[in-house]
Every structure is written in C-alpha cells, then in structure tokens.
Design a protein that fits this description.
Methylamine Dehydrogenase, Chain H; five-stranded antiparallel beta sheet; 2% helix; disordered N terminus
Length: 346
C-alpha cells in the first residue's frame, strides 16, 4: 500500500532553538529523522539546523537509512499497534494490526517524495542497506525473522530466523555478514549476506540488546544492552563476547554510532536522557551528557564533529558538538522522533 506522497517545504527562517553561541553544523549534510506518531520524515539542513522539509511516509515510521549514493532514503513502516512499555501484553494483544501498512517506504531525495513502499515482512522496525545499495536486511519483530529484500525487483528474497523479537540490524564493514539483535533471546544472530545462512548466535551478556555498531576495520562490534545498562564487546572473527562496558546508573542504551576514525563510539541512553561516549581503544566510558528526553536514534556527521539524537518524548532533535559534548541546538520535528540518519546534500 503506497503511502501518501505529500510534502511541506519550510520557507520560514530556521525552526530550531539555539542554546549556545555556536551556530555552525554539518554543512554538506541532510539529517533525516523519522517521526513515529506523526507518520512523517523531517529533513534537517546540517548547515543551518533548520527543518527544510517534512515528508509523509506512512504508519509508524521507525528505522531510517540512506542509500550509499545518497539519492534515496528508506524508512521502516509498521501496521502493528503501538504498545507502550507500561501496557500489559494481554492488552496489547487485543489491538488489531493492519499488515497492509507494513513495508519500507522509498523516499526520493531530489523530489522529497515517497515514491513507493517495498514489502519487507511483518512489523519491520530496523534494517540496513548493503554497501552496493542493492539489498535491504529488515528485522521483523512480529515474525522473529530477518527479511532480505531485493531493491531492484521490490521483492523479498528470503526470510531467515533471527531469534525472538529481532531489533537492530547492521551490515559488517566488510559487507559479508549482517548482525541482528534479539531482544527476547539476549543475543545476536550473524547471517551470511549471500546465502542467508545463520553463521552464529552470540550471547551479549546483557538483557534486551538493541543495536550493533562496528569499528571501521571490523575488528570489534559493540552491542547495546538496554535493561542492563551495558555495552557488549564482541570479537567478529571468533563470534565471542570479549568484554562488557558498564554505563553510568540510569543508562538505557539504545542506538550506537562509531566515528569514522574509529576512536569513539556514541551511545544514546533512551529514558536515561543521555549520550555516553566510549573510548574505543580502552573500551571505557569517557563521558555521559544530558541531551534530551528519551534519545533513541543517533547519527554522526561524516567529519565526526556533530552528533544528532532523536528525542522521542521531547519531539525534537539535539545537535551536539562532539569536541565539547555540548548541546548547541534543539530542533523541533514531528511527534515521537525515532530514527536518525545522515546523507550528503544532492
């Protein structure tokens, strides 16, 4: 089912709130933020920290990724009802899902329009794109599977068992494997991207793993364990847990992004309201900074100078200067911002 393709261009001055004397940003980048409750995608100009467009995409947009060539933005849509953590499972089960609303929205960057929706299994939430831009790897929480989608044909190629309640999806730097976290099994499933074969299942040593981040050379993987407030350090070569990083009390680690130089990893701490900075060489916490209300999605500018967090309950995006870890802007977006991704301006 194709989502409505409407667009609102923002011609007014910057819609952001400046909280520091610094006003510069990621000048050559667009920041894309999915807004789960308002069914749209906010486009932020990295140079001005202003919302320049709002694109309707479909129901419950969450995961968001940019194609390698920067021309397309993909957004995960779900027809499953939204059930807050405080809602009992029995109550959530009474809600009716609309499977016709599931899929991956395809947004054309040049026209800023949703051009189609690709089928991608039941309740797609998070996903990643292959390095050649031809394949999507999508976690389906309601189906306990990873759906592999051929972008050109617009059809799923296969479904791979990926543990109970699969969540975060990340393709390894060498492009040979894709890693999928299982919230309920507390592990990561490693899948061969060509054959779809499960190569390993790695226990994370914590509870409710959410996301995976790799150092650029692929020698180390970090997995966020939400309910235990820890980061699992995994050796991709041996598929073994080699350490655990304990975050400050109250941290609820969700998203993670590693700098291109491989020196730092940044972790959004959800209901903890903070971002923690990890020293990659020492696997230790350098700092933890308050950034907003329930930061979830997290993105880093290509030069590593600017960090963006989608603050779900705050309905805004924090712009953080990484050299000082100071929040220099808060950009109002849609309702319940969930995911964040960065692409180069066309």
């Amino acid at each position: 089912m194709l989502a409505a393709c409407t667009l609102r261009d923002e011609r007014a001055p910057a819609d952001s709130t400046k909280t520091s004397s610094s006003s510069s940003g990621a000048g050559g980048a667009w920041v894309y933020v999915s807004n789960e409750d308002s069914r749209n995608l906010s486009v932020i100009d990295g140079a001005t920290n202003a919302v320049v467009a709002t694109i309707d995409v479909g129901t419950r947009p969450r995961g968001v990724k940019v194609s390698p060539d920067g021309r397309t933005v993909y957004v995960a849509l779900s027809g499953s009802p939204k059930c807050p953590p405080t809602m009992p499972d029995a109550e959530c089960a009474k809600k009716i899902a609309d499977r016709d609303l599931d899929g991956i929205a395809v947004v054309d960057v040049a026209s800023r329009r949703t051009v189609k929706v690709l089928p991608a299994g039941l309740d797609p939430e998070a996903f990643d794109v292959s390095a050649d831009g031809r394949t999507l790897f999508v976690s389906n929480e309601d189906a306990d599977s990873l759906t592999i989608v051929d972008i050109a044909s617009g059809r799923p190629k296969s479904n791979v068992p990926a543990g109970r309640e699969p969540e975060g999806v990340t393709v390894a730097p060498d492009g040979k494997t894709v890693w999928v976290t299982s919230e309920a099994d507390h592990d990561v499933t490693v899948v061969d991207v060509v054959t779809g074969k499960v190569l390993a299942q790695v226990a994370t040593g914590g509870k409710r793993p959410r996301a995976v981040g790799f150092v650029p050379d692929g020698s180390k993987a970090y997995v966020t364990n939400e309910t235990t407030g820890t980061i699992a350090v995994i050796d991709p070569a041996t598929h073994t847990l080699r350490g655990t990083i304990v975050l400050p009390p109250g941290s609820r680690p969700m998203g993670i992004v590693v700098s291109r130089d491989g020196n730092r990893a940044y972790v959004s701490n959800g209901r903890g309201g903070t971002v923690s900075v990890i020293d990659v060489a020492r696997d230790s916490v350098l700092s933890t900074t308050n950034v907003g209300v329930r930061p979830w999605g997290i993105a880093l500018s290509p030069d590593g100078g600017w960090l963006y967090t989608a603050n779900g309950s705050g309905n805004d995006v924090s712009v953080v200067k990484t050299s000082t870890m100071e929040v220099v802007h808060r950009v109002p977006v849609g309702k319940s911002p969930w995911g964040a991704a960065i692409g180069t301006k066309p």
